[in-house]
Amino acid sequence: MKQTIFFLSDQTGITSELLGQTLLSQFDSIEFVTQTLPYIDNEKKALEVVELINRNAQENGIRPVLFSTLVQPEIKAILHHSQALMLDVFEHFIAPLEQEFKIHSSHRVGKKRTTEDKKAYDYRIKAVNYALNTDDGLSIKQYAKADIILLGVSRSGKTPTALYLAMQFGIMAANYPITEEDLENYELPTWALQFKDKLFGLEIDAKRLQEIRTDRRPNSRYSSQQQCEFEVRQIKKLYTKEAIPTIKTTIRSVEEIATKIIAKTNLKR
Amino acid sequence: MKQTIFFLSDQTGITSELLGQTLLSQFDSIEFVTQTLPYIDNEKKALEVVELINRNAQENGIRPVLFSTLVQPEIKAILHHSQALMLDVFEHFIAPLEQEFKIHSSHRVGKKRTTEDKKAYDYRIKAVNYALNTDDGLSIKQYAKADIILLGVSRSGKTPTALYLAMQFGIMAANYPITEEDLENYELPTWALQFKDKLFGLEIDAKRLQEIRTDRRPNSRYSSQQQCEFEVRQIKKLYTKEAIPTIKTTIRSVEEIATKIIAKTNLKR
Q1: Which of the listed residues B43, B70, B101 is the one where a domain comes to its end?
Q2: With bands split at pLDDT 50, 70 and 90, how would you rate the model's confidence at B266?
Q3: Residue B199 pLDDT
Q4: Considering its fold, how many domains does chain B have in total?
Q5: Do B12 and B128 belong to one domain?
Q6: What CATH number does the domain containing A32 carry?
Q7: How crowded is residue B39: how many other Cβ atoms within 10 Å of its Cβ?
Q8: How confident is the model at residue A91 (pLDDT cuts 50, 70, 90)?
Q9: CA atoms of B92 and B98, how far apart (whole Å)
Q10: Is residue B216 part of a domain?
Q11: A121 with B253: Cβ contact below 8 A
């Protein structure tokens, strides 16, 4: 039998989802079915959710678990009538914070937009555009503006990592594919010499690289075991020779790669 | 005086950060200085963090607040000796879950990688590549594979939204710029007729659009008040005429735009 989990929010649901998944990952012998219910911001929607939860409880025969970041007391009151186990993030942490700060919280849904928020938003969009404009070795002349320049062989995860750094943290991340020619001579491309402190190398296992490349271009030299092993071996030597900091992308998610890079450099989140 | 906040994690820190920021947004009269400390996964790092926290408490004269998603008891024990108010997400929610599921949690840092995780990861990367390959009207011949096709005038937020849908939710999102010619005749481009159920329109205020375009190309026809007002007005009429669902991007973050689109369509997160 599968355990049903609901992630509930009056906003995007991302916090509730992430928190819930973090906690559920501690129970890997249980099979979970999850559903996110965002923007539950009025009583009508809340009542519909209660109905959905109770139907699920009945059909499934197992009490569902509910992670909630709901803020409004009247909406929460309705949800407390559902048959689920309700884990209320807001309720538990807001009281100690009120006590600590010696003021009442606003109980308002959503953040008040400030000029700071708009600036941060504009900056993230700018960073995403920068990552796109400098993807895969494009526009080297814009490298002076980069916070970081990711290096790696084709399909080692450069583009998603650069985009995530930009989208999540507003970091200006360019990425550049190291070519076979560079690899044969263990030489950095000439542009790289003036930006050495911005370089960061991605590493990947040859086997995993072969898998990814085969999916893209099967039975090619590009996806052959020999070629993948050669490129992986050579780029490692190049990183060592040039003392470029590196990270292994093989078994990591984009989130982990990006945050590890930030931790290993002096970049600001 | 500013209140210092630490977001602490033995992993990426993203959950701790998001949860903390959600809660802090309820106290908008206080000025916060936040710092994220990810990958605190051994005792040495934990001791360094305690030192950092205590130094901050002393210099600042205000007790810092600590949001923690730490899992390992021995690491947490060290942190409990700091001078901060520690809000321990793990501690509070893991007990009711253990009771509900009638098993002990693993107390292991990080998720066990499963084949499912790898598949989900591959799917997200595939979606990111799809969004890149179909950005700004590229590769219309790949639209059959799209889960959604975002429409909008230039600089209305199509690209970041498509990338976020792909990165966060593995949704195959293409995007297409509606041109002036389309706008003059209130006509959808011909390719759109066979994909009408995938279309989703982005709207933006003329004033905000002008701001964004001015940043990019000041004193041009493209960024003029008249042109921005014309495009915004005409595209609204086009959406109405063709009964295309829409969302306003003006005052929203990428996260909100993306999750609202998911909520308004039948896309799966």
Answers
A1: B101
A2: confident
A3: 98
A4: 2
A5: no
A6: 3.40.50
A7: 17
A8: confident
A9: 11
A10: yes
A11: yes
Q: Containing H/E element for A208?
A: helix A206-216
**Mean pLDDT, to the nearest integer, of B189-198?**
94
pLDDT digits (tens, 9 = 90+) for A155-185: 999 999 999 999 999 999 999 999 888 898 8
Confidence of residue A194 (pLDDT cuts 50, 70, 90): very high
Using the predicted structure, report yes or no on whether residue A17 has a pLDDT greater than 70: yes
B38 contacts: CB under 8 Å, gap ≥ 6:
A259, A262, A263, B9, B11, B12, B13
Sign of CA dihedral A267, B62, A16, A38: negative
Classify each residue of B3-17 as buried b or exposed e, where b means 16 or more C-beta atoms within 10 Å of its C-beta: bbbbbbbbbbbbbbb
Domain span at residue B64? Answer: 3-101
Residues 80..109 of B with a Cβ closer than 8 Å to A: which?
85, 87, 89-90, 92-94, 96-97, 100-101, 103, 105-108
- At A211, is the secondary structure helix, strand, or coil? helix
Residue B141 parent element (H or E): none
How many whole angstroms separate alpha carbon B269 and alpha carbon B267?
7
Per-residue pLDDT, averaged over A259-268, amounts to 91
- In the chain, the amino acid numbered A109 is V
Task: Of A117-131, B157-171, B207-221, give the lowest mean pLDDT range.
Answer: A117-131
Give A4's contacts (C-beta < 8 A, 6+ positions apart).
Answer: A32, A33, A34, A35, A56, A60, A62, A64, A65
Q: Which two tokens stand for residue B5?
A: 């906040």
Instruction: Please identify, among A38, A72, A101, the residue that sits at the C-terminal boundary of a domain.
Output: A101
**CA B131 to CA A135: how far, in whole Å?**
13
The 10s digit of each residue's pLDDT in B37-76 is 999 999 999 999 999 999 999 999 999 999 999 999 999 9
Considering the entire predicted model, what is its pTM? Answer: 0.88
Which of B11, B19, B26 best tests the A interface by mutation, with the highest count of A CBs <10 A? B26
Distance (Å) of CA B34 to CA A67, A186, B16, B29, B64: 25, 42, 12, 15, 10
Which pLDDT does position B113 carry in this prediction? 59
Inspect the interface and report whether the beta carbons of B159 and A132 lie closer than 8 Å: yes
Mean pLDDT is lowest, of A136-150, B153-167, B182-196, for B182-196
Check whether residue B119 and residue B207 sit in a common domain.
yes
CA A72 to chain centre: 28
Structure tokens belonging to residue A269: 């989140």
As beta bridge partners, residue A199 has A149
CB contacts < 8 Å between A and B, how many?
A: 169
Partner A contacted by B151 (CB < 8 A): no
